[in-house]
What does this fold into?
Amino acid sequence: MSKENMDQYVINVMKGLIIDGVSKANSGHPGGAMSSSDFAYIVFRDYLKFNPANPTWFNRDRFVLSAGHESMLLYSLLVLQGFMDKEELKKFRQWGSHTPGHPEVDRKHGIENTSGPLGQGVGMAVGLAVAEAHLNARLGADIADHYTYVLAGDGDIQEPVALGAAQLAGHFKLNKLILYYDNNRIQISGHTDRADSTDIAKMFESFQWRVVEIDGHDHAAMRREIDAAKAQTEKPTIIIGKTVMSKGSTKYEDMHDFHGAPFPPEEVVAIKKAFGLPENDTFFLPEDALAHFRARYEDLKKEAAEWEKKKDAKLSADSSFKTLWEALHKASFEGLKVPEFTPGEKVATRVAFGKVLADFYEQVPFLVGGSADLEPSNNTAGFAKKTTDFAPATRAGRNFAFGVREFPMGVLINGIALHSGLRSFGATFLVFSDYERGSLRLSALMEIPVLHVFTHDSFYLGEDGPTHQPIEHLVSLRAIPNMVVMRPAEATETAAAMQYAMAETKSPVCLILTRQGLPTLDRSKVAPADSVRKGGYIVRGSESETPDIILMASGSEVTLALNVAEKLPGKVRVVSMPSLELFERQSQDYKDKVLPPSVEKRVSIEAGSTIGWGRYVGLKGLAYGIDHFGASAPAEVLEGKFGFTTENLVKVIEEKFGL
It folds into this structure.
């Protein structure tokens, strides 16, 4: 049998696995997976560089399935690769399997990222390509030299986040990024022309991409264009493949009905018959198909072994490379040095962050990131001045000019962090966390320690008004599972929060920072700043003394709480609560020492929504905050109008508890 005929045979076998997996689960998306099968097969069989013995090999090509609903396509390919057992296909979408409904990052089984929310896979692929280019420049082309392939569908291209990321990819001239757009022109509700008439080719040409259009089932055309993409060095490539939804179905080609539903049993039999597969043999995977798919394996193993020898030799001969290599593979950075701040000195926490970030530049060699066009406001400018912008001519640059692209920034830094040990950050205003929420959620779901920096954290930003004054955003971020939200009270807490963020290994961190200056606490009189790691700790009063009342606050309101405590009668404890998530991770004994259950007079103070504080103030306590939008006026005016003054809070608390 000719190679082309064997290729088609293996593709048919792969499609049989896709159909059987979806049918057994009685759930899934077979149509798009069948239309994309030709390209995905060609990439995996003939082009993808990987180590068959080690799915996490450093210099492997990365493959991102942005069209995550086509997950059975990826899982079938991973079975053919040998990275996943065929039995996992039988457990598609079932509890405890490695084959969930949409791919979830699982490098042991060859899955590079979590995808499903459309468009984000494209952005993460851009981030992976950025990481490769950066590492290529700093470690050498003999160590980091690989491609990033991404498979996207019509829905991905309709999502603006993909287009924002694509603009950056073109601007950065990421020539090792190859995007295949499976343009089958079908989505769940019908044909795409009901909702879209964009000339995608012209759009990507304007983004400075190399653009080609082909028959998405023509293997020779695919190979020709992949070869051409790899031969040029100036642009990322998009291959627009005109394909047929449910390619190979006997009755349902080019129909939207089975975009997201299993084929009827009789159609499954008919398809297998047409493909020349055993009609009643489910999950058919013959040895000759595996042998053909794995024809390159000895060469791939040899290439990986040769790379390992080069890497080991370079580690022995080049001390600077060894230092970088070890830093890249260091999961956690403990004990980083931070600048000192003078007690009583007024420092905005965004300013303190900027100083710490600049100091971390040398201490964390692969700390990279930037701001969504807010460098002076976010205080990332100091970091930026120590390096250069990442750009086509300066790919070793560690600062990223993302432009006004909050969501693309979020997905790019996720992709960068996924690559291999780079520590990435992105910064904007807290109110714009709404714009990048999808990427925040995925960073938490993927358990990657990305740092999301949000400044201008309350109505205290003043005159910009309610459009820019965050109210519900803190509680919104706190609602994301596995997200650590840290709102430090002053400069030393900010430095400690940054130390924590660099030591974290499995959770992203949201750092919430003020525009206005706040007095620095005298740490000789209160608990050390690294108490931040406990999420909540006493800054006024003694743990050994039961208080009459407890005031809890985060961020700028800790200073206010301390001032209020001075005016209230009795024993008043003040607790700084920079991170509710970290506080909840502490033992019950510790939490009860900080917040004694016997003390029912409790007040939380935070310049934002009061939602979430109920668990700490209890039924008899008071959650003081803002459950309405802000206003445009100087910060000191708003402070009075919204009741965030010592005098007003003393009055409110005394009236509440009859003091």
The two ends are 92 Å apart (CA to CA). The first helix runs from residue 3 to 25.
